[in-house]
Structure prediction request, 121 residues.
Amino acid sequence: MAGKAVVSLTTGLEDPEKVMVAFLVAVGAAESGRPTLLFLTKEAVRLALGGVAVGVACDGCPSLPDLLQRYEAAGGRYYVCPICFNTKKLNAAALIAGAELQGTVPLWQWIGDEGATTFSY
Prediction:
């Protein structure tokens, strides 16, 4: 099995190109057979809510809904920072498939002793 991958994203739709690049990296890892986790913090937590990650970042770029669909189909998961999420008073019942409120301790447990390749956006 390929090694794990973690993509940490702090940016939401205020920078759609950064979001798209983070998802492209995560999709590439997941579709390559790596266990992949997107760790969403700050404004990125909103992307884990249904109907938020919409649109196209740039002319010729893949749409965000397509990237999310590919990520889910490849088995990608999301850990959504519960502090960031709850501070914004968001609704946990609206989380998308594969997303769960999990903080840094569960993140480290998921990574485990063998480590992971990481990217941060």
Summary: The beta strands are 4-9, 36-40, 77-80, 99-101, 116-120.
